[in-house]
Amino acid sequence: MIATPSQSPKLTPIEYFAWEEQQLCRHEYINGNIYAMSGGTQNHSRVALKFAALLDNHLPDGPCRVFNSDCRVNIVETDDYTYPDVSVSCDRRDNNTTQYITYPCLIVEVLSESTEADDRGNKFFRYRQNPQLQDYVLVSSQEIAIDLYRKDSDGRWEIVNYRAGDVVELQSVDLSFPIEQVYRGIDFSEGEV
After folding, report:
1. Are 112 and 121 in contact (CB under 8 A)?
2. Which residues on adjacent β-strands are paired with residue 149?
3. Max CA-CA distance within the chain?
4. How far is CA 121 from CA 9, 12, 37, 54, 94, in A?
5. Domains of the chain, with CATH numbers?
6. How many CB atoms lie under 10 A from the CB of residue 84?
7. d(CA 181, CA 183)
């Protein structure tokens, strides 16, 4: 999904939370501005759901919790809040908040033509400021393709490109799976509007 700017005055974080409770759709909050989240396609929704279910089945118990796109992520050391498609936090500090998490180790964004540039650019720049984040996963909704940005032991980000036939490795949650598992039942032949 993509955030589109809203024509409202800048809000404080407290005003944003109170205001958004009254809204029919979700809004990201960046630098005091609110951005309405537009709807996604069927493939976008199904791929995000499959990825979240895969992670949730892998992490049924223990300190790690899987969140879908209804859970905000607070950009560490800012008052900015986004709604990634899937996130995982294993950090106990995130047990102290109810409306968001701040310390995800893994974030998944499902790409579309309208979101790809922002997900690869501005969002990744903001997300990677978080020292807890280890894996940033960009999943295509138009073909079998996953790009994984992984933080190495020196704190540098490397990219691993996965395509059909590959096994995806998420070190942050100790999970390996065939890429096709996320795309099972997805039909790319039908054009989505």
Report:
1. no
2. 136, 159
3. 49
4. 25, 25, 18, 26, 26
5. 40-183 (3.90.1570.10)
6. 26
7. 5
Task: Sort 164 into a burial class: Cβ within 10 Å, 0-12 / 13-18 / 19+.
Answer: exposed
What mean pLDDT comes out for the span 81-96? Answer: 97
Q: Per-residue pLDDT for 191 more than 70?
A: no
Tokens found for residue 39: 């709807």
Which residues touch 102 (CB under 8 Å, ≥6 apart)? 73, 74, 76, 91, 93, 94, 130
Res. 8: pLDDT tops 80? no
- Of 90, 84, 120, the closest CA to residue 3 belongs to 84
104-111 vs 86-89, strand pairing mode: antiparallel
Percent of the chain with pLDDT over 90: 81
Q: Which amino acid is at 176?
A: S
Structure tokens, 188: 């790319």
Query: Residue length, the chain?
Result: 193
At 192, is the pLDDT very low, low, confident or very high (cuts 50, 70, 90)? low
Which helix (DSSP H) or strand (DSSP E) does residue 45 occupy? helix 42-58
Residue 45: is its pLDDT beyond 50? yes
Q: What predicted TM-score, i.e. pTM, was given to this entire model?
A: 0.92
| Position 39 pLDDT exceeds 80 | no
